[in-house]
Amino acid sequence: LVFVLSSAIIVYRLPWTWKCSKLLMKFIHAGLNTIAMILAIVSMVAVFEYHNAKNIPNMYSLHSWIGLTALIFYSLQLFLGFAVFLLPFAPVHLRALLMPIHVYSGLTIFATVIATALMGITEKLIFSLKNPAYSAFPPEATLVNCLGVLLVIFGSLILWMASRPHWKRPLEENTKVLRPIGGTPEGTEVESTMTNSSNVDKSDLRISTEAARKQNLKFDEAGQRSTM
């Protein structure tokens, strides 16, 4: 969940993907999130089955509370992402309104997943290491502690990439979207507005030119009459 979710987060932030169509990147983003969700559900079922087989109580630790909460909100995030941003039914103004919330909630869920992993490996060390105990700092404790530090560094890099403006997909690329089946491409309103405004400018120019031409004809007629 940590690594697949992080790949889904930064898929828009990689410069070599900026030349790809926005629709293709949406499908890749949704596919990676779906894979991460499936793996998270499988692991959750495995945990409950293991606890039941070993007569271990379920949902008593902070690790389990935060982990289940992250999974529930992640499923909601995935569902709303499909419904609003992938399917061609939501209006553009609704997408623009929900996009900052979608990005913020995705980053928050990712940070929560990192915290859940850190609590999980610490809990496992406390329960598993008996002789020597975790407090004796055996080699296993050193290995897992280093793994936790690497997780923190990895998560910080992903959040840094996702929050820096220069890693953001260029705006001009966002308007070049392939038309989804049965839908309208993003940026249509902008393009139509620009077309309408350009048409208005052209029509105003034609009106002004026509008025100037008629005025010149009147001047010419007046000059001819005076000459006669």
UniProtKB/TrEMBL annotation:
Every Cytochrome b561 domain range: 1-163
Annotated EC: 7.2.1.3
Cross-referenced Pfam families: Cytochrom_B561
Recorded GO CC terms: apical plasma membrane; lysosomal membrane
InterPro entries: CYB561/CYBRD1-like, Cyt_b561/ferric_Rdtase_TM
KW Transferase (keyword) present: no
PROSITE patterns, A to Z: CYTOCHROME_B561 (PS50939)
Major location (coarse): membrane
Topology class, membrane: Multi-pass membrane protein
Cofactor: heme b
Segments of this protein annotated with the region Disordered: 180-204
Catalytic activity from the UniProt record: Cu(2+)(out) + L-ascorbate(in) = Cu(+)(out) + monodehydro-L-ascorbate radical(in) + H(+); monodehydro-L-ascorbate radical(out) + L-ascorbate(in) = monodehydro-L-ascorbate radical(in) + L-ascorbate(out); Fe(3+)(out) + L-ascorbate(in) = monodehydro-L-ascorbate radical(in) + Fe(2+)(out) + H(+)
Bias type Polar residues, positions: 190-200
Transmembrane segments: 27-48, 68-89, 101-121, 141-162
Alphabetic keyword roster: Cell membrane, Electron transport, Heme, Iron, Membrane, Metal-binding, Oxidoreductase, Translocase, Transmembrane, Transmembrane helix, Transport
Entry annotated with the keyword Transmembrane: yes
Official protein name in the record: Plasma membrane ascorbate-dependent reductase CYBRD1
Source organism: Calyptomena viridis
